[in-house]
Structure formats: C-alpha cells, structure tokens
Amino acid sequence: MGDIFYLGFLYEPENPNDFYKHMGANIKMLYILRTFYSLGINVKVISLGMSPSNNFIKKVKINGFFDIFYVATLKYSTFISKIFLLFQIFLFILIFVNKKDTIVFYHVKKILPLILFLKKLKNFTLILEVEENYSA
User: Fold this and answer.
1) Cα–Cα–Cα angle for 89, 110, 122, nearest 5°?
2) Which pLDDT tens digit goes with each residue over 61-85?
3) In angstroms, rounded to a whole number, what is the distance separating the alpha carbons of residues 14 and 32?
4) Are strands 125-129 and 58-62 parallel, antiparallel or unpaired?
5) d(Cα 29, Cα 105) in Å, to the nearest integer?
6) Are 49 and 11 in contact (CB under 8 A)?
C-alpha cells in the first residue's frame, strides 16, 4: 500500500495562508483525520483554498503524523486564482502521487474533472467523499 493523500478545504489547526473558511468541509475533514489518526494511519493533506493575499506553499506537520500542504495563493482575480489552484493540484499529483497511492477527495465539483483526468493518467486509487442529502 502506498501513501494516502487527502485533498480538501482544511484550515485548522492552522491557517498560515489565510484561506477563506468553509466551516462544513473543515469540520468533516477534521473528523476523518482524527479517525485516521486513531487507526495509526499517516495521511498527507493537501489543503486547498483561496486567500485575499499572495502566499507561498507552506508545509505544517501535525502530531508528527500528518503533513499538511497549504497551496500557494494569488490575490488577483478569482478566475486567475482558480486557474492557479488547478495548476498546483495538477503538478502536485503529477509529481508526488504514484500508482500505489490513494487520494481521498472531498467533493469539489469544479476540481473533479481534473482529478478524474489525473486518475486515468497516474492510475492511483481514488475515494470520493460525497455529502449526504436530507429532505423532509
């Protein structure tokens, strides 16, 4: 078994790049990371986000168990920032993810086509997280 990568909007326990906050996604990701931790599974988190300022990629180690990579951000237009985010995801997966690795992807519909393309290219295992829908 290879490495496990977890992609999604995580801004806790730290937020060094001042990402805009997505509370629901953050709470769910923290819950799943705590579960991985309780099972002794090491996970590399790629924290996606956009920020009102320019930032470089930052790596934070949590509990000696999780590496969290906060993507770089641009303070320019939303369109350019989104393209820059997709470019970083593309390069990260292309360089660091191998066939034996697993990516757990927190649902972000706009990024999913890129992830599916990279899955075909790199042949890694992909686990998609899907939100539950409640209706009355």
Assistant:
1) 40
2) 766 667 878 777 777 667 887 888 8
3) 17
4) unpaired
5) 10
6) yes
pTM for the full predicted model: 0.82
The C-alpha atoms of residue 81 and residue 60 are separated, in whole angstroms, by 22
Q: The sheet that has 58-62: what strands, in order across it?
A: 58-62, 66-70, 43-47, 4-8, 102-106, 125-129
The predicted pLDDT at position 64 comes to: 67
Q: Nearest-5° angle of CA 29, CA 30, CA 31?
A: 90
| Rounded Cα distance, 112 and 65, in Å | 27
For the chain, helix (H) and strand (E) counts, in that order, are 3, 6
Chain centroid to CA 39: 20
Query: Hey, is 69 helix, strand or coil?
Result: strand
Beta strands in the chain (DSSP E): 4-8, 43-47, 58-62, 66-70, 102-106, 125-129
